[in-house]
Amino acid sequence: EIDVDHAALATGRALAAFHKDITLFENDRPLVASHATGRLSLPSDRSFETYEQAASHVAEPLERGTSIYIDQGYVDARITYPIGSPGSEFAVRTTAALELGDALKLALRYMPLGEDSRAMVLTGRSGTVALNPTWVRAAAGFTGLGIAHILTGYDHMLFLLCLVVPLRGWRQILSVITVFTVAHSFTLLGSAFNLAPSGAWFPPFVEAAIAASIVYMALENIMGVNLERRVLLTGLFGLVHGFGFAYGLQESFQFAGTHLLVSLFTFNIGIEIGQILVLAVMLPALAVVRRKVLTGQMGMIILSAIVADTGWHWMIDRADVLWKTPWPRPSAGGLAILALWVAGIFLVAGGLSVIARRLRFASDDALPAPQGRVAD
Predict the structure, then answer these.
(1) DSSP structure string for 208-248
(2) 78 in the Ramachandran plot: left (φ > 0), alpha (ψ -120 to 50) or beta?
């Protein structure tokens, strides 16, 4: 049990730790606290439900003789920082217990004057996060986030590899990649406006479907590619990958401030930039492999088989997670969203079919047949 009546020195050390580990910035300048007050509280205390209640609560002394057991109470604090102007750009960074990674979270609510409050959850890995970013900072941050999402999304990169392995010429590559880009942008935008299905089942379903798309494309590379069908399937699988991109965005949307549309648009731009960077490395490397290591159609088949094996293991693992996830009961709202997406998928499929016919890929544009000679 904590000796509440003699806890003043320990409370002072806790306030100093708060000030040291949680840094506030004004226009990139660290702020220094001018005043700090703290106290111990019982776990049953609910004063932090509003700012006014919390401020009043921290100013009151704890009743003498209150029993608080070790690891079962709160250290409540109010720390005041002088600022230059309410119109400044503010930011926050936490360095508390960096060794715990994302296990230790800083939950905060930013309440600017004359605007709606915004909730955020940060960790030591979040770095310095702007509370009210300018549109330029939001755009730059979400562009970098989109690039990083592609460069660390190995399943997306493997899918891109499956798409381009059998293709020959820039016209074919550009057509397929453009369809993929438009398709995943469609579902990314829909998810950002909360039009995606909800529930614990949907993220593992999307992850399993992404792995399945890799397996299918790799097997199609082995069995033979029809480019009109590839354009259509690339668009449909692109819709699924767009949901996967959306999860990376949703976790960081809290940092957009008031610039939600700018952040959404630049995140998508970042994904396309990352996609271009991946292809800029992948295509020359693939050309070297075709000429020097895995030549001919057999080399392409071996490469696709390796990719299919990797995607198969991902699909099995993710399907196991999906199988263990409880599925929701049907509801009117859920069925309405499902009907909306089904209609959208049919619309996209119809549009892609028209595009594929307009492109008029000839049969000899498909995967080259093995070369051979016949003697009379």
Answers:
(1) HHHHHHHHHHHHHHHH---HHHHHHHHHHHHHHHHHHHHHH
(2) beta
In this structure, what DSSP letter does residue 272 have? H
pLDDT tens digit sequence for 235-249: 888 888 888 888 777
* Whole-number Å distance between alpha carbons of 183 and 241: 9
Given the DSSP bridges, would you call strands 29-30 and 22-26 parallel, antiparallel or unpaired?
Answer: antiparallel
Tokens 């579902």 label which residue?
187
* Radius of gyration of the chain measured on its C-alpha atoms: 27
Q: Report CA-CA distances (Å) from 274 to 152, 183, 268, 282, 356.
A: 10, 16, 10, 12, 26
Dist. CA 24–CA 28, nearest whole Å: 9
Q: Rounded CA gap, 128 and 117, in Å?
A: 19
pLDDT interval class at 350 (50, 70, 90): low
Helix axes 135-151, 154-164, angle to 10 degrees: 70
Highest mean pLDDT among 1-10, 194-203, 317-326, 328-337 belongs to 317-326
Angstrom distances, CA of residue 83 to CA of 87, 202, 362:
10, 44, 68
Residue matched to tokens 């960790």: 123
Q: List the Cα angle 236/359/183 in 5-degree steps.
A: 25
Nearest CA to 73 out of 1, 8, 13, 131 is that of: 1
Smallest CA-to-CA distance from 149 within 194, 95, 197, 188 is with: 188
Q: How far apart are CA 203 and CA 201, in angstroms?
A: 6
Distances, alpha carbon 324 to alpha carbons 155, 204, 318, 334, in Å:
22, 10, 10, 21
Tell me if 348 sits within 8 A of 232, measured CB to CB.
no
Phi and psi of 24, rounded to 5°? -100, 145
* Residue among 248, 254, 264, 14 at smallest CA distance from 110: 254
4's enclosing H/E stretch is none
User: In this structure, what token pair is assigned to residue 131?
Assistant: 């509370």
Instruction: Give residue-wise pLDDT tens across range 109-145.
Output: 888 888 888 888 888 888 888 888 888 888 888 898 8
Percent of the chain with pLDDT over 70: 86
